[in-house]
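Field reference: sequence -> structure
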Amino acid sequence: MTAVLSKSRRTFGALSLSEYRKRYPLTVANFGALENREAWLDRIWGLDARWQQALEKNGGAQEAIVRGAPPANLSIEGEFEIIYAGGGLGLLHAAVMSCRYKRRVMVFDTGNVGRAGRDWNISDDELRGLESAQLFTRAEIDEAIVNRYRSGFVKFHDKGSRVKTPPLWVDGVLDVAIEADKLLARASAKLEASDTGSAMLSGLRFVRCYNQPDRVMVEVEDTRTGKRSLFGARLLVDATASSSPVSL
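Structure field:
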């Protein structure tokens, strides 16, 4: 089962383009050349709104992990073995669990599952891990590589400091650039073909997880309609990185 977030689908509660222009004219102007500009503005707006909620003096962010039963008025839409919040790197792990270990998994994302919209930097050692996990062949990985670098460096900005530091050169770290969407598209196709009853659902925002003795219940919100629902599983994997409400 796959649900795709269309370009026209707007985040629930997001501003209109005219309102973005009024409040953030320079941001809108600099996003002018981007394809699907409103969707990117919505993503930034949503991230900022969640950070602001977490930083509020009175109340702050709502508790993301709750012990006990979920609200009785929410319907349970499906049951899985593992649920992944985050459809980027989380999708790669989910595909391994579904394709190799035949687990029934669900992957959901606020945006589109399997769409990063950018290249990723990675190392050959990490790519070999994807191959040894039997998710991709070497040829499939090579098709997604767009560039390689001889080396890289780390350096602190020292313009205003009396102490000047030379670059610290590192080899074999983040020296391979891959087209993330190509790799994720392959993972999506493999997961969909796994015949495990797994699902990839786009346009769902994590709200909270209810921890019960025998399972977890994950509450999500539809980013377009604001409707909330529940999905059950034995395990929740938070793969939402810096936007994670669990880590706030």
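Note: The chain has two domains: 7-55, 65-243.
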